[in-house]
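Ticket 4471: requesting a sanity check on a complex prediction with guanosine-5'-monophosphate. Repro inputs:
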Amino acid sequence: EAPAPQDDCLFCRIVAKEIPATVVRETETTLAFRDINPQAPTHVLVIPKAHHRDAAALAAADPALAADVLRETQAVADDEQLESYRIVFNTGSGAGQTVFHTHAHVMGGRGLQWPPG
Ligand code: 5GP
Ligand code: ZN
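Returned structure tokens:
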């Protein structure tokens, strides 16, 4: 059974269209929209519509949905014609996670350093 939307979750509210977002792709189970504070020429967030707090929780609870999210990150990279890009799941506040609804950052369109710091 899919987890219920959380009233206090920003990304659940974007899924519910209570908060506007620039949506670039949508499937039955996922949504992709532009980051409000882009850190690269392409900076898109791909989320499962269902609420899971981070990538680890998503993978454990619903691996098929995790695969949907991963597939959509590749679709965004194709749509944006990115040759080189980065997919990031910040997991935990120590790694910079600020929104606790799983999201993949798809970033590209400029050179990216490794390690990211
Ligand atoms: P995190 O730091 O949790 O990995 O990433 C959260 C991301 O969500 C940040 O890159 C931030 O800019 C983005 N963000 C925060 N609030 C909003 C919003 O209201 N709309 C959109 N489109 N992105 C947001
Ligand atoms: Zn949520």
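Notes from triage: The chain has one domain: 10-108. Leaving this open until the requester confirms.
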